[in-house]
Task: inverse folding
């Protein structure tokens, strides 16, 4: 009997907690229940941690090429040497194949290259500001780029793992920048459309329809190809994000417009109007907070398209170009299928693309469900 | 209904007009006018254009006049079917594009048919057996389709066929012996045998979305009281599901073609490049690399027209499929 009362009391306490919780708290509780979205959120956080610490995680200078090291196979880490914890990789010994005269590399168990943590390596600027030369991994004494290749090297003999870390930074950031651009356009045009309605709405809706019915990839390709090859790299980044944003804004504009339209007739908006609040105050104080969560969810779902677009463009050689390092630029080397068949690790950069896109999709789904905690 | 059709038609014309402006902008993007670029290109191959000929070309395109006059001249030439010259090939654009537009349409339509043919049963299965192992499997497959970019899927298929089946050339749309031939029944049959792979690669990404829509629609329908009534009256399960709920769920499903078409045409460009299909994809790519934006702009315009026609056709199919739209229109007009 007393147990029943206690649990009933607990229920009322829980109910009271719900009554007094803010909207964001409710969303967080709803979001927490979505297991897949939680895992995705952690993966995304790890990705962006990788973005911040890219140079620290890389151990070899990503631009250092050496013809001698072309297409070396990956060296997996062996954590234990006998019974003691002594991480090391096996050194590689090259031999000529007597039949094909190709150089074939074999791991040599006798040649142990010990791994050290927090060692000094090539110099970089942390967050572009602080000069540092510490790296997570390295080899004492020798240069890391001469001895360890966790996932092999590319055609020019550059360490693929280090390049992948730097590429992750660029690809993830450029996706964010592209989304920011389309968010700006989407909120501006979608907001105008939903707010004023009538002819403005009609014109903007027609524009959205037109943009949506033009095939995006050819247009992207054409615009990207028009970027002069002699432009400085920062300007190319900017133009590419601009191109990504120009085409991606329509979905966000539709979300914003739909929210505006449905909120305009809500009682609390009418109440604010009657109380004499100005239009700007109504929009930013009353309307925006109640659809901010929807916009965050829509933005998260728009990110994967940006990442895929950038990767595809760079893969074709029309987006970012070397010396820039992005996922697409790395995958360009996988275009030659014969090369991939002999050195499948050239396809490894595809993995972070797939994981990131999946994680953004799951996170976006979870956020969309949580965005409306009263539903 | 006639009103509706006319409205959609006018919207299509408007879109084509907008696309022509965008294509024109693309042509204008590189520095210098295209006659200069064309002459420079001809000179590099050894042909010299006389000053009079160059002047005649300039006059034809109105290059000495303001931009809007140039646009009008250019679009008139386009309307007359005069697409100009492709610099790199030194042949008319029309000849260079040739059959490639047809193959682009064939590949895209094949992909859409495949999406429908697979998405319909999968969607029905996933809705009827919600949360079953199969449902989870197809959901997983759908997410893979969304997450793996088209070109990467093509690469992985190429790699797998090369590595494990030792097939050197899985790409292409025709066997080598048919490449130079004109259209004939054996050639069409040969193409039909090559089509499934690109269609599948192209379709996987779009399929996920369509399955999702079909599943959600059908789940909504299945919960409606009329389904319970039909079951209570003793109709067999298959009949209950297929006769009404699937029919009702089909309508929003049919409208997906409107957005599928631009999506698939767009994707076919990159997939064609990786699989070396003879569509306009590789041509567009080469034109862009060679900075022949005249050819590129023309292809862009043709692709836009293609998607507009595709969307228009899908609207018509929707009217035909959904009696509610048909009759709703008649009541309004």
Result:
């Amino acid at each position: 009997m007393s147990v029943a009362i206690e649990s009933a009391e607990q229920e009322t306490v829980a109910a009271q907690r719900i009554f007094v919780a803010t909207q964001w708290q409710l969303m967080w509780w709803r979001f927490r229940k979505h297991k897949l979205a939680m895992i995705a959120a952690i993966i995304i956080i790890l990705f962006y941690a990788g973005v911040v610490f890219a140079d620290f995680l890389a151990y070899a200078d990503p631009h250092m090429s050496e013809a001698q090291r072309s297409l070396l196979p990956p060296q997996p880490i062996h954590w234990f040497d006998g019974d003691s914890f002594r991480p090391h990789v096996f050194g590689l010994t090259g031999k000529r194949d007597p039949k094909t005269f190709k150089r074939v590399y074999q791991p040599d168990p006798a040649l142990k290259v010990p791994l050290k943590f927090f060692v000094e390596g090539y110099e970089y600027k942390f967050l572009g500001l602080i000069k540092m030369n510490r790296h997570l991994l390295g080899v004492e004494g020798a240069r890391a780029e001469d001895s360890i290749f966790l996932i092999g090297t590319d055609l020019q003999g550059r360490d693929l793992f280090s390049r992948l870390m730097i590429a992750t930074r660029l690809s993830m950031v450029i996706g964010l920048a592209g989304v920011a651009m389309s968010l700006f356009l989407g909120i501006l045009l979608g907001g105008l459309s939903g707010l004023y309605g009538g002819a403005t709405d009609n014109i903007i809706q027609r524009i959205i329809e037109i943009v949506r019915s033009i095939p995006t990839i050819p247009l992207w390709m054409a615009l990207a190809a028009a970027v002069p090859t002699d432009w400085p790299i920062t300007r190319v980044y900017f133009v590419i994000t601009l191109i990504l944003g120009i085409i991606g804004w329509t979905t966000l504009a539709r979300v914003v417009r739909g929210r505006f339209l449905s909120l305009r007739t809500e009682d609390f908006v009418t109440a604010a109007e009657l109380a004499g609040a100005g239009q700007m105050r109504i929009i930013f104080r009353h309307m925006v907070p109640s659809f901010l969560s929807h916009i965050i969810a829509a933005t998260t779902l728009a990110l994967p398209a940006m990442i895929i677009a950038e990767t595809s463009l760079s893969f074709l050689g029309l987006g970012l170009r070397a010396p820039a390092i992005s996922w697409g630029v790395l995958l360009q080397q996988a275009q030659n299928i014969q090369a991939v068949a002999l050195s499948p690790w050239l396809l490894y950069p595809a993995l972070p693309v797939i994981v990131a896109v999946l994680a953004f999709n799951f996170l976006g789904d979870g956020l969309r469900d949580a965005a409306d905690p009263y539903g | 209904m006639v009103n509706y059709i006319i409205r959609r038609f006018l919207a299509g014309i408007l879109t084509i007009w907008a696309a022509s402006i965008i294509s024109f902008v693309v042509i204008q993007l590189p520095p210098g006018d295209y006659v200069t670029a064309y002459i420079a290109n001809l000179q590099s191959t050894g042909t010299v254009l006389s000053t009079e000929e160059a002047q005649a070309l300039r006059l034809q395109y109105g290059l000495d006049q303001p931009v809007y006059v140039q646009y009008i001249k250019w679009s008139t030439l386009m309307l007359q079917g005069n697409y100009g010259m492709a610099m790199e090939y030194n042949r008319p654009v029309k000849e260079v594009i040739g059959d490639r537009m047809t193959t682009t349409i064939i590949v895209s339509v094949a992909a859409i048919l495949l999406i429908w043919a697979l998405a319909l049963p999968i969607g029905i299965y996933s809705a009827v057996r919600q949360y079953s192992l199969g449902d989870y499997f197809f959901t997983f497959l759908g997410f893979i389709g969304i997450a793996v970019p088209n070109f990467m899927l093509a690469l992985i298929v190429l790699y797998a066929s090369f590595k494990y089946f030792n097939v050197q050339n899985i790409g292409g749309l025709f066997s080598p012996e048919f490449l130079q031939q004109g259209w004939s029944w054996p050639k069409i049959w040969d193409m039909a045998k090559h089509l499934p792979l690109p269609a599948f690669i192209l379709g996987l990404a779009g399929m996920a979305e369509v399955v999702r829509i079909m599943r959600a629609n059908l789940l909504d329908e299945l919960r409606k009281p009329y389904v319970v009534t039909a079951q209570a009256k003793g109709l067999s399960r298959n009949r209950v599901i297929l006769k009404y709920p699937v029919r009702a769920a089909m309508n929003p499903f049919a409208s997906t073609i409107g957005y599928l078409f631009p999506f698939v045409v767009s994707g076919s460009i990159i997939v064609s490049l990786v699989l070396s299909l003879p569509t306009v994809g590789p041509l567009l790519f080469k034109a862009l690399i060679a900075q022949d934006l005249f050819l590129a702009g023309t292809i862009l315009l043709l692709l836009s027209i293609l998607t507009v026609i595709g969307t228009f056709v899908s609207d018509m199919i929707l009217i035909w499929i959904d009696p509610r739209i048909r009759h709703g229109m008649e009541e309004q007009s």
About this structure: The radius of gyration of chain A is 26 Å. The longest strand of chain A covers residues 84-96.
